[in-house]
Every structure is written in C-alpha cells, then in structure tokens.
Amino acid sequence: GAGVSQSPSNKVTEKGKDVELRCDPISGHTALYWYRQSLGQGLEFLIYFQGNSAPDKSGLPSDRFSAERTGGSVSTLTIQRTQQEDSAVYLCASSLEPGLAGGPGELFFGEGSRLTVL
Amino acid sequence: RKEVEQDPGPFNVPEGATVAFNCTYSNSASQSFFWYRQDCRKEPKLLMSVYSSGNEDGRFTAQLNRASQYISLLIRDSKLSDSATYLCVSYNQAGTALIFGKGTTLSVSS
Question: Which of A23, A94, A114, B108 is the Cys-Cys partner for A29 at CB 3.0 to 4.6 Å?
Fold first, then answer.
C-alpha cells in the first residue's frame, strides 16, 4: 500500500555535516508532521504543515533545523552542522484534513530515518 | 508543566490481568485525545481516539476526565501481544500540533 515513505532509512554522518531527510506523505493528506525520537525517549514534536497555512515551527530545537514542504506534498527536513545530540530517529506522519473539533484525525507514520552523528 | 505527562512504567503484568494507565494534559481547551501504540523499534500506530466521555473497543477502554485533565486507558484480559509502549496524545497549547507523551511501557508475561 502507499503509506508514508521516508528516506534514507539510515544515515550516518560526521559532526558538522548537513543532512537532508525526506518524507513522502500519503496522497491526499494535507497535514504533515515531523517528530524525532531519541533512544528510549518519547516523540518530540518538531514542525507541522497544514495545507497552505504557515507551518507551526514551535518544536524546532534550534536554527540549525529547518523544513519545507513543496507543492503541499513532499517534505524535506534539513539539519545543518549536525551535532552528536541530533542522533535520533526522525519520524514523519501525515493525516487527512482537520476533522472533529478542528484537529487532524489519525496520524500515519513512516518507518523513520535513523540519524547517527559521529 | 509538560503538555502531556505519563507514568513511564514499566508495568509488568501476567496474562489475563487488567491494567490501567493514566495521562495528564495541560491544554484545557483540547477537544481531542488519542492513545497510540508503539512496538519496539517500530513507528507509532493509532490504538484509540478518545472523545467526550470516552469510548470502548473490545478489551480496551479509554476515559476522559476534563475536570482533572486526565485520560486513562484500561486493558482487560491482557495478552502477550499487548506488550508495547502506549503513548498518550493531545494538542499543544496553540491547538495546532499533536503532542505525544513519553509513553508507558507494558510487559505482559505468561
């Protein structure tokens, strides 16, 4: 089935390098989220895109992190000058239009991109 | 106060046991709540949505207490396959993004 697709599935990089992580949401889903999950930790919200509205960037941990969503579909999360504490699994999720009470319904997650910064 | 807080556990129970998890949330205006399940090294998947006074799905019951700002998940007749981390989800203060708790780990043994 055409679920949320993320690439790369694994990325090992050296400290100070830039990385790009890609998310291809389910077709027709207007809402797209990025989260990250460190080993043994919960999901940390990073950024949220909804249609053509300005994204909610309130979860981005520093200005080294940025994300864009082109054409309302594919999204790219960019981490500049990576640090060892950036090592985590970066999860993307998408959902349909806001539903009950103005919020999104079920989030469908990709399998994540595991980033290791040496 | 964190936006969504959960007891991390772990909860270790035998098969057939009933177990309950609680979660507190800080956004009193949030209208929607969810429980997600995450298996080891897998992505989270929706277990149940929780609206108004709560709902039931088979062995799983979710309750919402708006006055105390907490939701609960009750699992009856636990199965080995229920072993996972259960994530409580609510909206952030801005009402725009879904925020996950750190999860409660359940281990069901035979």
Answer: A94
Task: Write out chain A residues lying below 8 Å of B36, CB-based.
Answer: 107
**Nearest residue on chain A to B97, judged by CA atoms?**
A48
Q: For residues A30 and A52, give the distance between their C-alpha atoms in angstroms, rounded to a whole number.
A: 9
- Residue B95's pLDDT is 74
- SS3 category, B78: coil
Assigned token pair, B77: 């007749």
Q: Which residues pair with B102 in a beta bridge?
A: none
Alpha helices in B1-110 (DSSP H): none
**At A100, is the secondary structure helix, strand, or coil?**
helix
CB contact under 8 A, A111 and B43: yes
Residue B100's nearest CA partner among A28, A46, A100, A116 is: A46
Calculate the CA dihedral of residues B21, A87, A109, A30 and round it to 10 degrees: 120
pLDDT tens profile B76-90: 999 999 999 999 998
B4-45 pLDDT, tens per residue? 999 888 999 999 999 999 999 988 888 788 999 999 989 999
Least confident piece of the model among A58-67, A79-88, B68-77, B84-93:
B84-93
A52 in contact with B, Cβ within 8 Å? no
| CB contact at 8 A, B47 and B74 | no
